Structure formats: structure tokens, C-alpha cells
């Protein structure tokens, strides 16, 4: 059974934000950024909204037609790797939750490990509604982009935020080129790279 996918636009913004918020509420990295459960429930969506706005402006969001899964992609040129800009992490923190230094810290840490020197597709986030996880929607969203990467000779990059997602990405050809990123007093993230196939 095929999954119908379309490009999201501004009219889908609230749907995408809600989907990402629900999908990442219990994610280890989201729990680290917003450790208090109640505070995360009331604040986390603002971070997801900021990410959505950035990608709607300079990237692409693929959305399943039924609105249960989305993937946020950025095409990164060889000479650039910071989609938020040098001051992006500080601006995110100021706009979302000024007292939460972890919002800025995670941006700076992931920017520091992001590969440079080669153009690539960057999967910033992929979110699947909790009740639909494990049904292959993530693979369905990623496959068309990875197929295009293979045709065009482009690598792809992402940071896995959980062991479960890391396994999915490994099945799709991503590898851990270096060591994981250890968040201070927190979980690991896995920067993963995929060379084009064929």
C-alpha cells in the first residue's frame, strides 16, 4: 500500500506544529530540553513552531496526505551547514523560552558537529503521530528523497534523537561516522551520514 505525500505550505503550519509536538513529547532529547513534564506540555510546541517556520521559509516539509507524518528537509550547499545562522540558537532561545539555556545549547552543539564541505540533504526532523508510529510512515516519507539523492549523487545527513529512530535510519543506509553527541547530563544523539547508492 502506497502512502500519498505532498509538500506542506503555510496553510499546513498548525497541523505540522501539532504533529511534531505530539510526536516528540516523549523523545529523549525533548525531555532533556524541557525536563519538567507539565512545562514541556505547555512550552514544547513553541520550539516545534520555530523549527516549522524556518523550514517553511528555507527548506521543504513533506506531509502525508492524511496528516499523520511529516519530514522537514533542508538542502545544504557545500559551503554552509547552519540553517539558523550563527546567532540562530540564541535567537531561538530568546523567542521561545529565554530562561531555558538548553534550547540554545542544543542548537550550538548540533551546529558544531554538522558536516560541511559537501552539499547534502539534511533531515532536520521527522515526526509521526504517536498512534501511527511503527507503520512505515517514516520510511515512506524518506524514501523519495533518498532515491533522488541516489540519482543525483547527493549524501544525506541527520541527527537521530533516540535508539529507535537510529535503527530506522541504519536500515535506510545511514551510518554513524564518528562518535555520538553526549548532551550534558542528558541522552545521546547520533549524527548519521548516508552516502548516495548506485
Descriptive account of the structure:
It is a single chain. The protein has helices at 13-24, 28-33, 37-58, 88-96, 101-113, 137-152, 163-171, and strands at 5-7, 60-64, 69-76, 120-128, 156-160, 181-182, 188-194. By secondary structure, the protein is of the alpha+beta class. Strands 1-2-3-4-5-7-6 form a seven-stranded mixed β-sheet, with helices on both faces. Helix 6 (137-152) links the parallel strand 4 (120-128) and strand 5. The two termini are 26 Å apart. The model has no long low-confidence stretch (mean pLDDT 94).
* Structural class by helix and strand composition: alpha+beta
Q: Helical percent range?
A: 40-55%
How would you state the average pLDDT, rounded?
94
User: Care to count the β-strands?
Assistant: 7
- Total helical elements: 7
Main sheet overview: 7 strands, mixed
Strand line-up across the major sheet: 1-2-3-4-5-7-6
Low-confidence stretches: none
Portion of residues in beta strands equals 15-25%
